[in-house]
Every structure is written in C-alpha cells, then in structure tokens.
Amino acid sequence: MKSFIILILSLSLTFALDETSQIKKVYPLQNSSETAKLLCQMQSDITTYLRKTPLSAYSFFDERSASLKSQGLITWIHGNLNLASMSAAKDPYMRLALKNEKSTHLGDYRYDMFTLLSDLLLQMQLESDFSGSKEKAILNTFIDGYFERLENDKLQCPCIDEALSEVKASDVLVNYTKVQHGKRIFKTESHNLSKVDTATAAMITQKMDAYLADVGLLKVKAVALDSLGDYLLLSEGKSDSINDDMVFKLSLNTLPVSYQINTKMKNKYFHKSLLDKAKAVSSFNQKTYAGLLTMNKQKFYVSRITPELKLRPQSEQTRAYKNYAAALGYMLASFHANTRLNTCKDFSKKATQQVKKRLLKTELISMIYAYNETLEENWEDFSMQPLLTCK
Is the pLDDT assigned to residue 7 strictly greater than 50? Predict the structure, then answer.
C-alpha cells in the first residue's frame, strides 16, 4: 500500500517536474507530501506560483539583462526579494531587517528591483483596477524612491510611516507559540509544524545549546519541523522568563538562485559572499545571532525569526499605491546602500553617478511587463495540469 501511494504521488508530480525541481533546490529538506501541497497552492494562486519559482524568474532576468544598456552594478543583495520576504525591527528604533538572511550575497542590484517590481505589478493587477499608465506611474515611483534614498542616506521616508503597520517584537511569539500550563510551546496546529524524531531533536538541541551559549543566550526548549523542511527552535532567550523567548530557524545552507544559474557570477563573487556574509548580515540586523552550524556533514544556516513587515497601501487610490511603492524602493535602497559596508558605499557612489535613471526605468519596467505575460502563461499551463494530489 505504501509503495502504491508513493507511485501515485510520483506520477502526479511528473506533470509539474520543472516546478518541483525548483522547490527542491530552494527547500531541499521538504518532504514529498508537503511538496505536493505546495504545488496545489501554486496551481490555485498565481502569487504563490511567482514566489516559489525563483529559478524561472532569474533565468528570465539573466537572459535579458545582457542586452540592457542601463548600468549593471554589484552590491550586497537579499536575493529573490518579494513583498512577503521583507521584515522590520522596532528595537531600538524602526529599521529594516533581513528576513531570509541565508540568501544574502553579492549580485546585480537590478535583479532585486526586478523581483520586487514583478510582485508589485501582480499585486496591483489582483487588488486594483488601474489603467496601464497608472500602473507604470506607480512602478516609476518605486524607482524614484529607491534613488532618493541612494542620494541621501539620512533620508527618513514619510511614505513608510503611511504604509507600515505597527510592528512588535512579541509578534513572532504570538504567531508561532502559545502558553500552555505555564510553559511556552509551538503552535503545531496553525503552522503545519511536525514533531522531530528523538535522535534528531537531541542532536539539534546539543548543537544549538552550544551555539546559543556562545552568543549569550539560554538553551533550546523545543524543536519542530515546518512544511518547507526547516527546523524551528524555541529558545529561552536571555532569561528563563517566557516573555523573552526567541524563535530561530535552522535551514540547509543552499546556493543562491543567481549563483545556480549564472556560473560566471558564482565564480566571481561566491567566496567573497561566503567570507563576508556574517559581517553583512550583522550590519543589517542588530543582534542577529546568525551563523552556520554543521550537522551530519551538512551546513545549516541559523537565523532568528523577525516580525513580519506589515507594509500595505492604505487604500486602492493611486496616491496610496505610490506611497507604498516609494516605501518599497526606499527599503530596497537601504539594503543596497548600507553605509556600514564598503561594498555598499562603493555601489551607492557609482549608482548615483553612473546610472541613467530614465533609461533604467524604461528597460526595467518593459522587462517587468514582458515577464508578467510569461508568468501568466506559465501559470495557466501549470494550473491546467492534472495533479492527482489536488483532488
């Protein structure tokens, strides 16, 4: 019976071979059952499909970027950014933070603009009824906000205050955990979290206890596995109070999407990214606690889960979306032009002096619309495939 179930699952997944391959390269520890569920979600929601097919997005960008005349520059980038992968922290002040820290690497700044603009365009098309000219005006505002921040690193963007909801450090605990009988535990029912076998949990706990002790934190209280194959760890934090517990993620350290596809870029920047990643991450996220951990000869990336950045347009009006787009551009520039990193300082100087903004707008927005058409065609073809697991 078990063999029959595996056979049926294998047959159903062959219809989505390309999509499955992408998922496995980004989430190599995800099991077949969760992959099947994610494929079903991708069939029913184009936004999910967009965000879970980064290899397709980068292939499209990489193929066309060679013919662009706008200046291509290298800076530290988050990599495959989208509207769901941005984060914020409030202590000691409201600031931007990296959510998917393990993806930080050196690359072409235009790719991050490409992925965020693609996501923004799709969001507008799904949530509003703007004309093409209004859509383009909003996309242009994103690039304007980006360069305003590059040109003035002291700039405080009021558009963020208008589009950003309140973020609390406790949001992570409320989202992932609950208090039961005076103890904090994971909400296994709301996050599709599963238990980890005793041997694996013991090994992770031993490794992480030593890791946390080195950064002045107390021991692990619980270990769980999420639907993507990442381990979630509930730590005591700085004291044994349940109110300052922390949630960490332990994920297999994988090669960034751009380095998987662009061999030349990988050969040129991979080792520098690897050596300087810790410095880059800590410059973005204060008290990040990020680093690498080796288990069973595999390297895992440790990161603390930060609150979601609740950035939304205040209404469906064009002005609200322009403020929203400007805030996104400002945030992205804050990543790319981090004044604590020499690489970012060099990038910021070159970008403000060399990049022709009007040309960049024309080429990038044209590429966004071309990709949007390709995305819709690919998603329609994929959504018509008869995945047996979705019935």
Answer: no
